[in-house]
Amino acid sequence: MAEPVTTLRDASQSAFAALPANAQRSALDIEYRWLNAHLADAPLAVFLHEGLGSVAMWKDWPQTLCERLAMRGLVYSRPGYGRSTPRPRDVKLPVDFMSVQARDVLPALLDALDVNAAERKRMWVIGHSDGGSITLLYAAAFPDALAGAVVIAPHVFVEDISVDSIAEAKTAYEQADLRSKLARHHDDVDSAFYGWNDIWLSNAFRSWQIIDELDCIRCPLLAVQGNDDHYGTMAQIDTIAQRAAQTQLTKLDHCGHSPHRDAPHVLNDAIAAFVGKHTRSALS
């Protein structure tokens, strides 16, 4: 059962870590929603959205998966997205913006929502696309602060196919109907779109990679990708498996960049089997 969407006033201001040190910082509103909050003793699944995502853009998939897993859930919109505080127009995301989200923003949000250390040890983090990369970075930075991770179409380095598709998205946003579609899900749609699009298309970002960080991940890790993904190739999750030997790969036929939309039943089966296996082994 999904709780109403709520906003959290983040007095720590950590989510604007990307702002210059001399910039004026104000408190942030973070949009979030609890799922199955009545399951007080159940493990928590935290969902990290894609580069243009939000609480609303997940639709009902997190709820469906939480019911399948008998878990509580937490979905939230990162600063700049959904109903959370927009990115200031004069602030560009830094090359390490995903590291900032993993290292600073997610831990601060969990602190503000009173998710304690014991709950975090049982927590699963599930991320899609940029959210998948943030999931990997969180698992690397806090190896004892989660039970396991699921990454769906993550990025660990920049490929030409990603840049080409993101450039096409800019054309669709400025010349077609992508802006009007996204505007339904973001209070400041330009903040959401250009924050993501500008950094991914910048020359500085072409050398971004998080391959070395993968060596630090110790938790069970499921990496999922569709064979028809136009934002990345199988080299992304193959690289993860090469550096984190405990990784299980799931490669989906007839599936694009968003398996939770293109193949939700197959994806849910894969996640449920993986989580169930590692939950049983943890109890044995």
Second-tier CATH architecture: 3-Layer(aba) Sandwich
Q: The biggest beta sheet, please?
A: 8 strands, mixed
Shape: globular
- The end-to-end distance, rounded to whole angstroms, is 30 Å
The sequence of SSEs as H and E is EEEHEHHEHEHHHEHEHH
Radius of gyration (CA) equals 18 Å
Mean pLDDT: 91
> Using DSSP, what is the number of strands?
8
Keywords: Hydrolase
Protein name: Alpha/beta hydrolase
Pfam family, one: Abhydrolase_6
Domain AB hydrolase-1: 46-270
Detailed description of the structure:
It is a single chain. The protein is an alpha/beta fold and 284 residues long. The protein has one domain: 3-Layer(aba) Sandwich (Rossmann fold), CATH 3.40.50.1820. It contains ten helices and eight strands. It has helices at residues 61-69, 97-112, 117-121, 130-141, 160-175, 178-183, 189-200, 235-243, 259-262, 264-283; strands at residues 6-10, 28-35, 44-48, 72-76, 124-128, 148-152, 221-226, 247-252. It has an eight-stranded mixed beta sheet with strand order 1-2-4-3-5-6-7-8, sandwiched between helices. β7 (221-226), α8 (235-243) and β8 form a beta-alpha-beta unit. α1 (61-69) runs parallel beside α10 (264-283) and α2 crosses α4. The two termini are 30 Å apart. This is Alpha/beta hydrolase. Residues 46-270 form the AB hydrolase-1 domain. Keywords: Hydrolase.
List its traits:
284 residues; eight-stranded mixed sheet; Rossmann fold
Layout: helices, strands, pairs:
Blueprint: E1 6-10, E2 28-35, E3 44-48, H1 61-69, E4 72-76, H2 97-112, H3 117-121, E5 124-128, H4 130-141, E6 148-152, H5 160-175, H6 178-183, H7 189-200, E7 221-226, H8 235-243, E8 247-252, H9 259-262, H10 264-283
Parallel strand pairs: 3-4, 3-5, 5-6, 6-7, 7-8
Antiparallel strand pairs: 1-2, 2-4
